[in-house]
């Protein structure tokens, strides 16, 4: 086992070793996190709508815990399929206006389950280079040919689709909003290419579900493309403030997944209280429009304030605002300086992002106040000057 120590030393030498952060005993208020007994502004959570501490969700979970018990006791196909699942899947189908829905234990398992169920050795998957790791892992596990196209490059994708046009099944898969850059996939063009080359199209709405669409249905719905996307996937761990994931599509697709998606078949069902809490979260995502509106306005202001200060900030309108620093060590020092100022914002380094694009990935929440964010911008500017990231 000595090799592990050597490898760890190499990681540390490149400022690439990762650590689990210690939490503190302080109760957390929305938008904040406790670290080592201090309450810190949390600019690194995916709690976009500020629902993780919602009293109505907590109360629903408490009631379900009392009526349904702690664990589900088995996988869904055995005896774990309790009433809260049927209620949630019915509500999801109505929300998305699709034929059927299926809940998975989390987004990682949903992506692995769907991709391995749809393609195999004789098939090919076209995947954006910046897609989430769970998509990559699903493709590798499926044994299909893994073809990566340059980020959002539709000309490149077309060439690759043409090259592999004779494969048995073709699947194009993309994040709707990319996790580390906050930019959007060109969904109109993807739909056109999928139709032209008779491929299946799967869209991962992990970062866009709850955030886009009149009732939080996601980016596909916002663009009017919900009926053109074959497999619509999203997670409950971000905007919903919960845990779990969903896949929406045709009745046939869902029947197939129930038979073939191994993470669904060979793993225990989520605790019923979690599923019940998610139904409550879904109702709030649909009804509380003010959360989306507030998040949207805060994202615009935060992004433009940092951009006009002279930081390297990509354009976009999502609550994910990456501040690109390049160097791993600068990113770590920036994050540490923010920590000293009472702000938690994690440095993201390779292999999560390409080499020389280390960054601070800010993610905003409807739980943040205008003052929280204005203060944060001042501190970020100050640190930018101190570290020489901004010219004087
Ligand atoms: C977070 C995320 C996932 C995984 O979802 P979990 O529910 O946290 O497992 C999948 N895809 C994307 C794009 C994500 O950002």
From TrEMBL:
Reported function: Catalyzes the decarboxylative condensation of pimeloyl-[acyl-carrier protein] and L-alanine to produce 8-amino-7-oxononanoate (AON), [acyl-carrier protein], and carbon dioxide.
Top EC category: transferase
GO aspect biological process, one term: biotin biosynthetic process
Record field: catalytic activity: 6-carboxyhexanoyl-[ACP] + L-alanine + H(+) = (8S)-8-amino-7-oxononanoate + holo-[ACP] + CO2
InterPro entries per the UniProt record, alphabetical: Aminotrans_II_pyridoxalP_BS (IPR001917), Aminotransferase_I/II_large (IPR004839), AON_synthase_class-II (IPR050087), AONS_Archaea/Proteobacteria (IPR004723), PyrdxlP-dep_Trfase (IPR015424), PyrdxlP-dep_Trfase_major (IPR015421), PyrdxlP-dep_Trfase_small (IPR015422)
Any Pfam family matching the protein: Aminotran_1_2
Pathway given in the UniProt record: Cofactor biosynthesis; biotin biosynthesis
Keywords: Biotin biosynthesis, Pyridoxal phosphate, Transferase
All residue ranges annotated as the Aminotransferase class I/classII large domain in the record: 39-380
A GO term for molecular function: 8-amino-7-oxononanoate synthase activity
Residue numbers carrying N6-(pyridoxal phosphate)lysine: 238
Gene3D superfamilies in alphabetical order: Aspartate Aminotransferase, domain 1, Type I PLP-dependent aspartate aminotransferase-like (Major domain)
Residue runs in coiled coils: none
Subunit relationships: Homodimer.
Essential cofactor(s): pyridoxal 5'-phosphate
Transmembrane segments: none
Protein name per UniProt: 8-amino-7-ketopelargonate synthase
EC number: 2.3.1.47
Sequence similarity: Belongs to the class-II pyridoxal-phosphate-dependent aminotransferase family. BioF subfamily.
């Amino acid at each position: 086992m000595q090799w592990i120590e050597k490898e760890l030393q190499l990681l540390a030498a490149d400022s690439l070793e990762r650590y689990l952060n210690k939490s503190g005993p302080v109760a957390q208020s929305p938008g904040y996190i406790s670290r080592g007994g201090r309450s810190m502004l949390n600019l690194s959570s995916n709690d976009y709508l500020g629902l993780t501490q919602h009293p109505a969700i907590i109360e629903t979970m408490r009631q379900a815990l009392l009526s349904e018990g702690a664990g589900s006791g088995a996988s869904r196909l055995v005896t774990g399929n309790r009433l809260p699942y049927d209620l949630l899947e019915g509500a999801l189908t109505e929300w998305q206006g699709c034929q059927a829905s299926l809940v998975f234990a989390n987004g990682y398992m949903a992506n692995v389950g769907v991709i391995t169920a749809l393609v195999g050795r004789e098939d090919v998957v076209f995947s954006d280079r910046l897609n989430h790791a769970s998509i990559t892992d699903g493709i590798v596990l499926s044994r299909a040919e893994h073809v990566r196209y340059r980020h959002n490059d539709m000309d490149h994708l077309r060439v690759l689709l043409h090259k592999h046009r004779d494969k048995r099944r073709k699947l194009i898969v993309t994040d709707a909003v990319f996790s580390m850059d906050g930019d959007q996939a060109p969904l109109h063009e993807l739909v056109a290419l999928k139709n032209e080359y008779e491929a299946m199209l799967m869209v991962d709405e992990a970062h866009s579900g709850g955030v886009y669409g009149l009732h939080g249905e996601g980016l596909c719905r916002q663009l009017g493309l919900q009926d053109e996307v074959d497999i619509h996937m999203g997670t409950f761990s971000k905007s919903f403030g919960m845990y779990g994931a969903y896949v929406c599509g045709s009745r046939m697709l869902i029947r197939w997944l129930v038979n073939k998606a191994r993470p669904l078949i060979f793993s225990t069902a989520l605790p019923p209280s979690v599923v019940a809490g998610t139904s409550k979260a879904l109702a709030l995502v649909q009804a509380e429009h003010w959360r989306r509106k507030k998040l949207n306005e805060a994202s615009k202001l935060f992004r433009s304030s940092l951009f006009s200060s002279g930081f390297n900030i990509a354009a976009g309108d999502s609550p994910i605002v990456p501040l690109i620093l390049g160097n791993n060590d600068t990113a770590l020092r920036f994050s540490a300086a923010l920590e000293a100022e009472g702000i938690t914002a994690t440095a993201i380094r390779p292999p999560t992002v390409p080499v020389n694009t280390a960054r601070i990935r800010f993610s905003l929440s409807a739980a943040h106040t205008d003052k929280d964010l204005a203060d944060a911008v001042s501190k970020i500017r100050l640190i930018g000057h101190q570290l020489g990231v901004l010219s004087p």
